[in-house]
Amino acid sequence: MSNVYIIGLGMIRFTKYPDRGVRDMAHEVTRLALGDAGLDKSDLQAAFFANTFWGMFNRQHSIRGQVIMRSMGIDAIPVTNVENACAGASTALHLAYTGIRAGMFDVALALGSEKISHPDKAKSLGAYATCMDVENFEHHLQNIAAVNKAFDINIPEGQTPPGQGRSVFMDAYAMGARWHMSRFGTTQEQLAKICSKNHFHGSLNPLAQYQNTMTVEEVLADSPVTYPLTRSMCAPVGDGAAAAIVCSEDYLKKLKNPRPLKILASVLGSGTDRDIDGEDIGERLAKQAYEIAGVGPRDISLAELHDATSYGELHQTEAMGFCPLGEGGPYAESGATMLGGKQPVNISGGLETRGHPIGASGLAQIYEIGLQLRGDAGKRQVEGARIGLAENGGGNIGLEEAAMCIHILEKA
């Protein structure tokens, strides 16, 4: 089996694009990735395309990837359409990785493009609910409410307004945050610290949707979404695309002046029907990824974690083994996860400020880690970056993500 390398990366700024569509954003990042790799579109032997909402918003179902590829002059090659909620783009990369590792291809494209912004805001927010068990949706909401009642948390009046104007995932994340607060004494101020840190990182990233700094006090004073989350602690609705080109070791040897990143581990898994104190999907998959890569949590120079909310980052720093269970809040307060800290997290600004067009987010994480390992991240460069980890969760069933990918990359 061949080692697998990333040789090309492409991304556009995540933001709201009223005049752009899934197709032209995908074309742009594909051209960027090909240019970065020094390849022509005719060199591609396979493509894996991630998207979730194109069919819902514009009725393009079934052959989305073939439509994207054919309309930019790429045909004949196998094209696989990937839909895995927020983990779609990282799943596309995983599939490209497995195809090359199995010897089926020598060079392949992983691509994610998503347009979620819509004149009808309710339609955008309502789309997220399709990333849950739709037929059992009411039962799922009842479970969230029942679990919430078990927590000894005093919710300030007005801090959980009626469930309009937000996606249902914010309620799921708030449930996790309240559990953590009840069990470990985590505070809303610690969540605000994470958010403020990510706004600082995002202010240094020209491809981030939000590029403004926010103090802890400003985060806490922002509009309440569902306690303990305020608006700035939650990823915004937006559009964007990202791509990566991967190749085999034999193919890499044929290239002139490559800038490769070795994929040490690529793990994809699904959630389990566990109780709230059971082993989390992130803990389980991180152990697998570390074993495959031959590294441990202390070897990770930087990480991009799935922070659809500030609590998401806090939780995943624990699940990835960067700090013990229950200590994510103090760990964030210590400055360890900030640029210049011992283990920076979400230097891109994370989903909270870089943005979260869900079919592209996983590859945006890979793009950031690639910049960092190549030493191309400019003002937000992590000194001595050698190994990076990306964790990307998707959807929700029960008490955890329906799907998750973890990738570990090394500077080659």
Question: How are the elements arranged and paired?
Answer:
Layout: E1 4-11, H1 22-37, E2 47-50, H2 54-58, H3 64-70, E3 79-82, H4 88-101, E4 107-115, H5 121-127, H6 137-149, H7 168-184, H8 188-203, H9 216-221, E5 224-226, E6 229-230, E7 239-248, H10 249-253, E8 261-270, H11 281-293, E9 302-304, H12 310-319, H13 328-333, H14 350-354, H15 361-374, E10 387-394, E11 403-411
Parallel strand pairs: 2-3, 2-4, 9-10
Antiparallel strand pairs: 1-7, 1-8, 4-7, 5-6, 8-11, 10-11
Helix pairs in contact: 4-15, 6-7, 8-12
Protein described:
The longest helix has 17 residues, at 168-184. The chain has a nine-stranded mixed β-sheet, with helices on both faces. Strands 5-6 form a two-stranded antiparallel sheet. Helices cover 37% and strands 17% of the residues. It has two domains: 4-119 and 238-262, Peroxisomal Thiolase, Chain A, domain 1 (3-Layer(aba) Sandwich), CATH 3.40.47.10; 123-235 and 265-411, 3-Layer(aba) Sandwich (Peroxisomal Thiolase, Chain A, domain 1). A hairpin with a 2-residue loop joins strand 5 and strand 6 (229-230). It contains 15 helices and eleven strands. It has 412 residues and is α/β, with parallel strands linked by helices. It has helices at residues 22-37, 54-58, 64-70, 88-101, 121-127, 137-149, 168-184, 188-203, 216-221, 249-253, 281-293, 310-319, 328-333, 350-354, 361-374; strands at 4-11, 47-50, 79-82, 107-115, 224-226, 229-230, 239-248, 261-270, 302-304, 387-394, 403-411. Helix 4 (88-101) packs across helix 15 (361-374), helix 6 runs parallel beside helix 7 and helix 8 packs across helix 12.
